[in-house]
């Protein structure tokens, strides 16, 4: 019966029966609308006109602070607010003035109460807009953007009714142009976008400040157009849904603005107990990028509250990775910088009756429904004495904790604020034997540093209530926490614990093994930071968690390397070739372009002697159909030399295996053009090359339904192949670690840090694998052939030169 009454009430407001039934399904909306309509009827009687009903529905569906419902309904029912622009202004006003009492005079002025817009004023405003655009209107007629006219009229008459403006525009345009003709019904032709010149496209890729490109800056703004557009302006934290207000909030925000000057402030707060991975790259990009996009600053703050797991190498590696990605922190800070203040606030919490010392063991607090603490209501004075005893080392580890009195979103009750740990701290030494937890530390450090936007991944959403609660409990500035979906990749694990298992079992060498997706591993693999930043920008920032295919990251890397990695020649599985009629007594110097597509980027010189080495797979005594490289009666060209070689003799060893070839050569322009040109080396350097494939065989190695035996059972036995005696041309002899090259017909390679200049040069082959094609099926057995068929198929490898 109640539902029928509500249905009748809602249709009486002008809602269709279908819309009214949909509204009834939303309990919160239907309750507010019912209350608003009932109150309005007390003023207007049982019958409410449709215009007023529309405003009441808009109010009920958009108002977040239900305390203001009655106040706003009274204005609508009395016709003081009677247009949509006035309602929007009223909703914005109450959202930006959350504290009582409301200044009614100021409210009415901001909402246009009492302002009358006459039909004559609307007519004049529309006429002025039409006269301004009259020439263009006469040319484009009804294909002209009429919204422009309405917008300009609305700008002059802020409180005018939108429908009245539209009707006036329609009438005056009809009077000017007359009825629509057949030509007016044709679609407006699209204007072709002018193509960028090649130089412009290259300029757009040039690096600019903070490790970003011009394209990337645009992409970053694009990625922030989603949820990030809902971000509050500095000092307007209260406009964020769910933000908790107290009587002190507005004064604290005023002080905050005085300190920051309205500047956007973000922070990247890693724990120094492991190496950053690809997911952290997104967090770095978002925090630093959002600050930069808004002319703000970003802190790098180490959350060093767990000395047992923290190591100096992790601090260094994290800072190095942030710098490597191209970002410079405004300041590097540590949670330990604020240990004294955090302790003082913990004491204050106890004094306010909001925290207590508890003796439940860690195992008693685990699970979904742990037993309530029997010490929750102990006297404040007792907790103060016990907390002081904790600080002085009178309790063993696990014997006592300080807990906060609150219930979190996930049902967790009374999270721990402090625990006892007798581990020296890397910065404070033995000064402390109690350390704050993340739940206690994070929001308060944000408050101390006056962070405006505390951006974190979705798993921290359950801690949002404790974030707001703790700042408000201590009456300190409260930032806004905003969660976004974390970034994951298929065929990867990024858990610190699981990477340690991989290292311990010998599956990988260390945190920087090129088969992993830690940032140090990606750098060692040869991925340029610009490629990773571009990938993060393309992925964007959303609330939903995203799991991407590795080849999307590899595509971004390939785009960068194609313009930055100079070409060279290398042979992985060599076959000696002697040119019996070499044209000169000495070797020739061949000029090879660093970038064949753009020879303005320079050349390098390589020797061309009577003895050269080619890929063993570039020769076949008995070729199958379609084989176009060296064979009996089938000459091939040697890249960049201008010469063609033709087979004369095959030399085999005792086992019948081909050991070397003898060929003759001729100028390429002295006869028929060969079917193929192959790469080669002469007087080469010897190096080690490490070819990498995916570490795991399944997309989701941590999924027990996909890999029942666990991720360690899913290791790819062919994930690493070492070529110990590869040959590379001498142009790379002076290469330094992390220098990158594109070896012709093979792929991209990076000099590995294992290399020792003048002794050994290692090359890591970048694992840039494109989608599997027919050609790629033979990758493990005929890699050079695949590279020829599909030159974008990029394997993972490392070199070492001897």
TrEMBL record:
Q: Identify the main location.
A: cytoplasm
Task: Quote the PANTHER family the UniProt record gives.
Answer: GLUTAMINE--TRNA LIGASE, GLUTAMINE-TRNA LIGASE
* Physiological role: Glutamine--tRNA ligase. Plays a critical role in brain development.
The Enzyme Commission number assigned here is 6.1.1.18
User: Which protein is depicted?
Assistant: Glutamine--tRNA ligase
Q: Could you cite one Gene Ontology molecular function of this protein?
A: ATP binding
Q: Where is the protein localized?
A: Cytoplasm, Cytosol
Family the UniProt entry places it in: Belongs to the class-I aminoacyl-tRNA synthetase family.
InterPro entries hit by this protein: aa-tRNA-synth_I_CS, Gln-tRNA-synth, Gln-tRNA-synth_Ib_RNA-bd_2, Gln-tRNA-synth_Ib_RNA-bd_N, Gln-tRNA-synth_Ib_RNA-bd_N_1, Gln-tRNA-synth_Ib_RNA-bd_N_2, Gln/Glu-tRNA_Ligase, Glu/Gln-tRNA-synth
Q: Which organism is it from?
A: Callithrix jacchus
Q: Which PROSITE patterns match?
A: AA_TRNA_LIGASE_I
Recall the taxonomic lineage recorded for the source organism. Answer: Eukaryota, Metazoa, Chordata, Craniata, Vertebrata
Q: Which residues form the Glutamyl/glutaminyl-tRNA synthetase class Ib catalytic domain?
A: 263-562
